[in-house]
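Record pair follows.
FIRST:
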Amino acid sequence: MARHFWFVLALVLLPLLSLGRVCQCDFINFDDPFYVTENPHVLNGLDGWDIAWAFRTMQEDHWHPLTWLSLQLDATLFGPKEAWGFHLHNLLLHLANVLLLYAVLFLMTKKPWPSFWVAALFAVHPLHVESVAWVTERKDVLSTFFWLLGLLAYARYALKPHWQGMALVAGLMILGLMAKAMVVTFPCTLLLLDIWPLRRWPLRAATPEGDLPSFAPAGALGLIVEKLPLFLIGLAAGALTFGAHHKDALIDVSKPSDNLPRAVISYGWYLYKTIVPTNLGVFYIDKFLDWSWLWLGISGLALLAITVASVMLARRHRYLLVGWLWFLGTLVPVIGFIQLAETAHCDRYAYVPHIGLFIAVVWSLAALVRRVHVPVAVARMAACAAVLTLAGITFVQAGYWQDSGTLWTHTAAVTRDNHRALWHLGDWYETNKDKDVEQAVFCYQEAYRLRPDIYSLLLALKLEGLGRIDEAIVYYRLAAKSEQYLTAPETAPALFGFLLLKRGQAVEAEEMLRLAIKRQRFKDQRENSPDMKLLGHCLGVALIRQGKWQEAITILKEGSDPVYWAYAIYQSGETQEAERLYARLTSANPRWPQDGVAEARKLVANDPQTALEMIAAACQATKFSDPELLDALAVAQAATGDFTAAQKTATDALALAKINSELAERIENHLRQYQNHKATPEPDTSNP
């Protein structure tokens, strides 16, 4: 009992000392905005509507309601912006997983020392920093918590099988899947545990390591049948996740010539980084079409050698085969056989697979120590040195998660051609309190240099947001030429067209918007879709601004934009038809001209041409009889630089406003400004 106390104390102190500094870290600008800092459903905390949202959303292409609920709980307990509370929750879950792993292994094997070393390695390995230090990876530590509880429940069930015990195991698996879909391989790990240490799967030779607890034996077929419900649950969860990701998959699953080498190299990468956990980053670029034959050969030979050795030694050393197959099998969903992301390996993917690898290594080393008669004290000192070394590396690695700038600077330094790191580093330079726009733009441009197919549009949007419009237009043009931009080739010409409209470049805007409509029709045949309506409206506006009235009338009628449609008809000279349309609009909503002008006034400063068109339509509908609307029209005309028209409109408004001294005085002040060729500096945004 005293030994357990010291083991538990050590297993508590190891993660707290090596990873405790994550509680001083901030959120990062990669996925944390989607999961926490810009997600109102999480920031609102636990309330009825947002709890329901957690169960129905497929945001981020995953269904993991328990992950959302746990983040909402943090927002409720600690406050929505208190990063330390979210990090503390991750750390405590990792600590619970360490203790659960020790409990599970000891319950199944009655071997305290090997169980302790496996749990200690799991507690402090540097590859696990990402799972603990990244708030977004709450799903990692939370799903593993239920996974290990499921193993504990299964160990109890194996002692005395009954349906209630298996129901509990199934329930814990479902809870794990509600935190992260990677739990789909859970039933396979139970079958492995049936081989060792539970020894429920019959093999002809017994393990030579002494007595193990007596668990209820069963035939191979019986062991599979009892887990069929678990496999069905996993199959359903896997199908759901694959379906959500399928539209974004970068590589077709039917290309084994790409996928198999990627998977082999990735397995080798995990083995190498387990032994040499240095130069770790948050994102690794998958150069799957440029993989090295040398790395492929080394990885393939290593996998083959370990697999053959595990099979040959399986009768006498079952733990070696079980641990190795655990490692291989639990990595299958993320190893790259089915490519669902740009990277084939991430630190966080090793969190559960490491359990099997550590079991194989620790129990094999324990057998080797006994076989060659290494003094126990020497072996334990060596193990302590290894664990403490890993803990030191983990402490340093956790420090890189201090903030986005530190993390991405480190990642860019330790990886090659990492466009993701450069882009997010640029975003940090742009948004942190010591804003450095030039450095941000440099990082953005470097990311674009590496992957122009991804970043041409994103760079254009960033430059537009920074007010560097001429530079943005260069990248918009490049993006619009590409038909392969991500999954929405219509996006670039559409956004470019919107910008050109705001800048008054109607001819090129028409070209871009027609291209966007062509690509949108190829993607979605529905003419009444919201995207098509928006594109049609903007194309109609571009045509209006070129005086192409008949084309505009046709487009706007198709787009069901009655105000601009009537405006185009009026401008084409068919005033009576336009007035009939305006009358129908007014009959449906008598205040639409005033409401439209109120909205238009807000656009005068940034988009005066659109404001002018909206206000002109309202004035046409009221037959230019409302002095408030005429005053707004004059303001918009002056904002576009047409001071002659503004003076005439203001004069007409003044003549109608004589009975309203306050309005007349305001219009007179505006008129004097127009006569001096000055636009109204502060357009009135109050409702007329």
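SECOND:
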Amino acid sequence: MEMTNLIRVLVVEDDESQASVIRMLLKTELGAEVAVAGSCDEARRMMSTGTFELVTIDYLLPDGNGLDLLEEITAAENHPAVLMVTGHGDEQTAVNAFKHGASGYVVKDKRMPTLLVEEAKSALVKSALERTEIDLFESRGELMSVYEGIVDGVLVADHQTRKFVRTNPAMCEMLGYSESELLSLSISDIHPPDELGTIYEFFEMIFEDETSEARSIHCLRKDGTLFDVDIRGRRITYRGRPSELGMFRDITEHNRAEQALMKSEQRFRSLAFAATDGIVLMDDEGTVTYMNPAAEAIFGYSMEEAVGGRAHVLFAPEDMRDEYASLLGAFARRGNGIVIEAKDGGEAAKAEFPAMKKEGTRFIVEASGSSMLTEERWQIILTVRDVTARREAMDALETSEEMFRKLADASAAGIIIYQGSKFVYVNEAAAAMTGYARDELLTLDFWDVAEPGFRDMVKERGMARQRGEKVPDRYMLPYVTKDGDHHFSDFSASEIEYQGAPAGIATIVDVTHLVRIEEELRAANAELQGFAHTVSHDVKAPLAAARAGVEAFKQLVEKSGDEFDADLARELPEVILRSLVKAGDLVEDLLALAVSRQGDITSIPVEIEKVMLQVADENDAEIRRRGGSLSFDNDLGIILANPTQVYQVFSNLVRNAFQHNTASVPMVEVVNVGDETPGVHRYMVRDNGDGIPELLMERLFDPFLAGPGGGTGIGLAIVSKIVASYGGEIRAFNDGGACVEFTLVDRV
């Protein structure tokens, strides 16, 4: 290949080692003739005396900004393709480069060798196709080989037929077609139907104006998915026919990144505007670029007054400005990490500093700072909080702390202070209540002594209280002693400031004996009332009927001859038997109801499928008599529970479902619903009847409530009590019939 046919590239880079790497890559991969300029001025001189097909520009140069040189080059007619090559990549810099006409953007990282060559190939072909008839382009071997390897897609469409007559591998891959498939299609096949009008207008504009600026459109892949592309077009003659050439670049990820950047900036502005802490942004020289309303209130400056001023002059007391200026200088040299330095030379996430308001008042702020890189300049994000009042409160607290400790240690109630997640103070009464030594309690998280089921609640409320959020300040709190005993406490808490930071203080009074007495009295009273009603009415009624039957039978036996009624003699024993059976059922249910409250029954693994087989067998005769069916899942799981109580739950629910099912062919189904919580088992029993009457729905599980289908009115109450004794829940609803959903928790 003669020298005149070589691709000529100008590398604008002041770092000699970087320039050598870029020169070697382009020469090796493209066979290019590469010249190097170390500054903007040198680049201008070389471009004025020679012709280049590609220019790479570093972002920061000794005598200017790479973006300015980029804009200057792309403003000229028939300008070469330009790539921005930078050491610090960020989304905003990339957006600015493309807005100024860059053909590509490459970051100097481990991917640079691959990305630089790909972007260079794409930029060269794009630029060459915009200036050259494709027939001549195809005749130039070195450009044609680049054309076949570029990452941008190329399509040539006949102007009259709008069918594709030329493409490249990148376009085939982008659309998902083979080359032969793609060349059998036309423009309408690769764009959404509702956008074809706009597409045709674009190509007509190309034909009239010869070329066009880049435009964002949608393309359709072979599989029907949409994606975003930037397209540049040019009118050309291909094999003697008027045609349009399009260069396609998939910008889907670029658009997503740009949208993410915009959303990120919007979120920052929204959060900063609503933040209660002051937020101040500064550049690496300490010049204020932004402050939120909270910072305006803290320092007394409006944002308009502060922006452009030096932070150490605006916000620092006069006698400390030099010291603050030196901190900014240290940051500028370091360029990353936390910017607030501790006095010992290390770094601290937060520190307190003297500050000064606009009107001259000296006060204390708590400040923390970090840095971010924006357009190759370090920015400081400073968060400040006026802690003057807190400091005063801390002083007052320190003064009274000794008095507090004396009073707390003399208190009969438990008193604790927690900060963060830990106890920081416990009195002797709290230690005695929990069974831990005071030193042991100070190693625990403050929620560790609560009942396991209440720990998340205690943690959330305790942490929220320290954040100043409103949470309940008094409630009954179950807790566990060191020995594993379960107790109840009357828990009262409030927020305080302890040693300069938010904390919570609580008093704890053990009320276990009161809670247990109250629970026992309430349960006993409720069951006593139900029992009295059942004995006085439900049991008394069948016994009275049996007694009346016996008296009638006695009188009948004393009669003889024509006065003796044989039919009545046969009927009376049946009446007596039914009455006695009903009374016996009531007594059995009352005994089951009493047993259902017991919480100390031995638990073993219970296979629910075996329980259901027993229930099905016991109800088989009734099911057959009514022509119905009982179905249940094969995998109903295993529960750690008392077998008798589990049987009572499923037996009562199934029996109740059949008893009150009004369907001509009654069907009952038992389903393992499943639950994500370990140790919790959720089931549903449903039938195909008319459902539960609304009037009964709220009282369905009350003891001694008998429905229209008869029964003792105790079965569902037994189920409810057993479920509750296992820490479960139960609910009834209608969904194509009556449904009862309940949970049982493994009893360890």
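COMMENT: The first strand starts at residue 8 and ends at 12.
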